[in-house]
Every structure is written in structure tokens, then in C-alpha cells.
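Title: Prediction job returns without error message
Component: structure pipeline
Severity: low
Priority: P3
Assignee: unassigned

Description:
Job completed but the reporter wants confirmation the result is attached to the right record. Sequence as submitted:
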Amino acid sequence: MTKLKKIILDFFKAFSTTGIPAIIGLLGAIAGQNFKWLRRFLIPVIFTVCAVIELKSLWVLLLMSMAGWLSLGYGESSFLYKIFKGDNYLVRGTLGVLISLSFLVIPILKGNWLVYLLGSVGIILTWALITWQGFGSFKVKLFGKEYDCLKVDFLSYSVLGICGMFIIFK
């Protein structure tokens, strides 16, 4: 590997462990303002691109299954809400399990099962215990418009970004 290529890859890995989770958190928060595709499709694309760069395998395209899980929804009209009769712990925890299953291809390819287990526990606990809490909101100004984003969305998706990058790069 050339020295320049190694420097570029090292920079990408360093950014992915700090910058990308923050970007994922911001995308998750902004998505609550009628931009659901950011959450449902762009976040899985980010994880998939990172995994392709790290693992150089097309099997990581299975990470895109996360788009389906993020599209399920968890409100009163959702499928999971009806199954679990509105129990937020079960509804959101199930989504956390499904999102974690999207990352299953990583330990299959890398053999990092303990890392996968730790990252998955972080994702599942965040979704089950935090995603439905109310922490208030913050304002974000984009393209001349101001959006009121939920802090809980930023926190939840940032943790997803941290745990996902941990699973991919460790």
C-alpha cells in the first residue's frame, strides 16, 4: 500500500469514528422534520459505504436492509405498535434488534463477534430505553429555513452511528 493511500485510509477511519456518528445524529434529527428519506435511506447508505471501504466485499450491501427497518415506524398506526399494544420498550427494542441484525454480515466477514455483540447491545438499549423519551429540541438552520429538531433523535442516531462504526471498523 502506498504511503498516500495509507494516510487517506487512516484519515477516513479517524473521521468515521468521530465525524460520521455526529452526521448520522444530525440526519436522524433533521429527518423528523418531513425528511424521512434521510433517516431511512441515507443513513444505511453511509454505513454501507463505510463497510465497503473497510471490508472490500459486496456482501456488506446487506446493510441496506436497515432501510426497511427504519421505515417500519413506531407510532400508533405502525405494525409493531399494534403487535405490542403500544409498549414503547418492546416496540422500540424490537426496532433496535432489527437494526442490529442489519450489521450481522460484519462479524460473519470479520469474525469480530464480541464487537458486534457490544455494538448491538448499545443499539438495542438506546432504541428500547431512550428513543421514545422527550429531551426537548434544538434549532437547525438549513438552506434558509429553520427546523426544530428533537434532541432525543440526535442522541439516538448518534449512538447508532457510534455503535455502527464500532462494529464496522473494530
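Comment from assignee: result matches the submitted record. Residues 3-169 form one domain.
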